[in-house]
Amino acid sequence: MSLTGKTAAELGALLAAGEVSAVEVAQAHLDRIAEVDGRVHAFLHVGAESALEQARSVDARRAAGEELGPLAGVPIAHKDVFTTVDMPTTAGSKILEGYRPPYDATVTTRLREAGLVILGKTNLDEFAMGSSTENSAYGPTCNPWDLGRIPGGSSGGSSAAVASYQAPLSTGTDTGGSIRQPAAVTGIVGMKPTYGGSSRYGLIAFASSLDTPGPFARNVLDAALLHEAFSGHDVMDSTSIHAAVPPVVEAARQGDIAGLRVGVVKEFAGEGYQRGVLARFQEAVDLLESLGAKVVELSCPSFTYALPAYYLIAPSEASSNLARFDGMRYGLRVGDDGTRSAEEVMALTRAAGFGPEVKRRIMLGTYALSSGYYDAYYGSAQKVRTLIARDFEAAFHQVDVLVSPTTPTTAFPIGERADDPMAMYLADLCTIPANLAGNAAISVPCGLADEDGLPVGLQIMAPVLGDDRCYRVGAAVEKALRDRWGGPLLKEAPAL
Amino acid sequence: MTTTRTAMPYDEALERFEPVLGLETHVELGTASKMFCGCPTAFGAPPNTHVCPVCLALPGALPVANDKAIESTIRIGLALNCTIAEWCRMARKNYFYPDMPKNYQISQYDEPLCTDGYLDVEVDGKTVRIEIERVHLEEDTGKSTHVGGATGRIQGADYSIVDYNRAGIPLVEIVTKPVPGTDRLAPEVAKAYVTELRELMRALGVSDVRMEEGSLRCDVNVSLMPRGSSEWGTRTETKNVNSLRSVERAVRGEIERQAAILADGGRIVQETRHFHEDTGVTTSGRSKEEAQDYRYFPEPDLLPIAPSPEWVEELRAGLPELPSLRRRRLQDEWGVSDLDMAAMHNAGAIELVEATVGQGVPAADARKWWMGELARRANESGTPLAELPITPEQIARVVELVASGALNDKLARQVLEGVLAGEGTPDEVVEARGLRIVSDEGELSSIIDQVLAANADAVEKVRSGKIAAAGALVGGVMKASRGKADAARARELILEKLGVSG
């Protein structure tokens, strides 16, 4: 098998054994990018030179006998919402076109420290607002399973890069499902860690109380290795948790679920759910039972209000977080011709620099925080958030994990929902509750929908700091399904 | 820009109206680093050198709260007799302005760290209790300079430049409740409050409270109500009040301005006004009638602040002696009157006298020099007493020289003059100017002989029993010796030589 077909763990082993060099591995992936990314458009920026430079440095360190981590020399695609000193960072927005940050995000720093070779920066919905990457100012990314369909979003460039073998690993951020939904619709693994489990420093903020960096990979173990590499407390992020990273790699290696109590959330089914999605989900539940898990159905009634609460809280925070993009200190500046006031330049810059979805959310959030509306909107949404956390808490008294389909439907065609924000927002129906409560949740592939032959994801939700449970259950499902399928789901994807 | 309308004379204004005050004071904390990042806070660095991704609000940067600033705020709250919140949050105050990098200020809204306190101030021998509404913690903005306009304000400027060194410096806001009942003492009460607050901050060691550098800034709210009314009038908020004297002037000026408008049947506009240091008048700023909506919400990038009761008690126990109590103690120790103590307080002499007494000088002597000769000098040159180029140690040395008989008061004043003129230490000045008292009996005796010979009339009067006339002879000796004679000894010798007993 070619180097690009290998998993991160396999590449790590080959590199450690000296059977391949990091430069060879990086070059193989750069060649793959050159071959297919013209069609996929996963990358906004490919840093061939800096990638090879990092690869050479890893090879040199290894040659010098340095002890390196399990992912040293393994390539990675990095979501373009994390700052990088050696590559532009745009957050998918015109307002940051060509912006070069003077500092690395903590996640970036930890990737570098782990010896991961950053191939480039991946496409995303502008400021991570969206479920399809169609909101990128730089054009959409295509789903490797069907180039006419969306790869999910907002981390669609990262999911597509991994699903099309341009990188074995990628980073994403999940605010309302932006890792799990793209993973589900491209047939790969995507994990949203516990909120605060991974640092937000240098992650360009969308909604501060929800944003969570997490990994993409083609299998559960690789995701766990990457999760471990960049997670853990960071003094630069006050909301990062003072706790050891849960034993995710060990859990991914074990994958034993005998006696595990699994809860099926009653609210995540019915109208709006694609038939093939529900069929694959039911099979996954049956599979868990056959592997020795005890499955019960339970109700989380407040989850019904998660979507509207999310669309008040996230835009409210965004309206404030995005205020800094005013053309005064960096990024785009429009109308500064010596006659206009600072206020006018700010307004012109923001009018030209932000896309329609970003403007929509800034307006939504500004309205929700306005005096006289605050209690009814932002205040109520925060109460819903508390109720959702209580529902989770009650559920986790009865079960160890909760499961649901990751998304109600498979990947939809590019353009289908672009003019219908409400339809677009429904893509995150099942993923949002875990964001509002800060829980850990993963999406693993669970088959193809009969009606369109496109991937379906199984979402496994665990309590706060129960990230290892996601990996344990994910690994068990992955192993059983691969045995059934005779290999990974991705082998069903059309060759690019 | 609208300038002040006619003002009603203060006395008349007070006959017809009763003022209600409110004061909002901002104190920049003297922490080593900024509120949410590691940048230094030192004043006066070249523009935009104390900045980093966090205080410039670069994409992705996050705040981390400065624990020392939280501690200082709690100590201020305790010193102001406030209740300390067991749990509270920072909040974002959203508005666009180029000197605020994030376009929101991290502040506190409905959950301030300290609430419901008071500060007692003395005015005219009367204690006035100023109730404190809240003390909260926030971050400072950058500093805008508007270039090219006539007023130095943004309206009419050609362009503006911004220095972000100040952006993110921890700022404590202290807000009083409305202060009614100060009557005609309103300006003095306002000044006394800010003065007392400033001393409190110094005693706590939380800020250098330099009004001229902006590390203590005061907004003065004033409203008037007609005598006999109990319904408060519309208030204005005067900003840019940069000295203690200006606090007093701003209150007085605003009372006079509002009284003139109200007496004309006019209406006070709720607005921000700007105080002009040079003219003492205020001009209209932003109207507050259409209140800006700051869309406050709890800051999601920071954890709540939850000071444990044990820690708060530890901080309370560690508070220094507060200025008013200290003044009372010193007054007792020094045995001075209320009036003298108030005079020393107003002249900024208390620390200096205390330090001089600390050098072993009797309190009366220390007070005499600082409040006499030196206060006069400071007044003449318009310098604060503490900034005269002379130290309590040097005063102590002068007092010692007087006590030992090496100097008299007149010579001592010349020594002080020399020290102030930069001629060196007291001993060096005595040496260089040759100011030691003439204690050589032979020399003194010959000076006396010359004086007696030249003043036959006075000599005759003394001989005939008019001993008081000896004063003129002593004066003559002092003059002839250019003040260096020991006057008491000279008198003894004169009487001895003339054969009369004193």
Tell me the fraction of residues in β-strands of chain A, as a range.
5-15%
Helix vs. strand class of chain B: alpha+beta
- Principal-axes shape call of chain B: elongated
The helix fraction of chain B, in percent, is 25-40%
Any low-confidence stretches of chain A, pLDDT <50, length ≥5?
Answer: none
Distance between the termini of chain B: 76 Å
What do the pLDDT scores of chain B average to? 91
What is the subunit arrangement here? heterodimer
Alpha carbon gyration radius of chain A: 21 Å
Order of helices and strands of chain A: HHEHEHEHEHEEHHEHEHHHHEHHEEH
- Regions of chain B with pLDDT < 50 over 5+ consecutive residues? none
Question: If you average the pLDDT of chain A, what whole number results?
Answer: 97
Number of helices of chain A: 16
**Major sheet of chain B: order of its strands?**
2-5-6-9-1-10-11-12-13
Quantity of strands of chain B, as a count: 14
What global shape of chain A is seen?
globular
Provide an overview of this structure.
The complex is a heterodimer of chains A (496) and B (502). Chain A has helices spanning 8-16, 22-40, 48-63, 106-113, 156-163, 180-186, 220-230, 248-254, 275-290, 306-321, 342-353, 356-368, 375-398, 421-425, 432-437, 467-485, and strands at residues 43-46, 75-79, 117-122, 169-174, 189-192, 212-217, 261-265, 294-298, 401-405, 440-448, 455-462. Chain A has 496 residues and is an alpha/beta fold. In chain A, helix 9 links the parallel strand 7 and strand 8 (294-298). The longest helix of chain A has 24 residues, at 375-398. The mean pLDDT of chain A is 97. Chain B has helices spanning 10-16, 67-79, 186-204, 244-263, 309-317, 323-334, 338-347, 350-357, 363-381, 392-403, 409-420, 426-433, 441-454, 456-463, 470-480, 487-497; strands at residues 17-28, 83-84, 91-94, 104-107, 114-123, 126-139, 143-147, 159-163, 170-176, 216-226, 236-241, 271-275, 282-287, 297-298. Chain B is 38% helix and 19% strand. The longest helix of chain B has 20 residues, at 244-263. In chain B, the strands form three sheets. Chain B has a nine-stranded mixed β-sheet with strand order 2-5-6-9-1-10-11-12-13. At the A-B interface, helix 10 and helix 11 of A face loops of B.
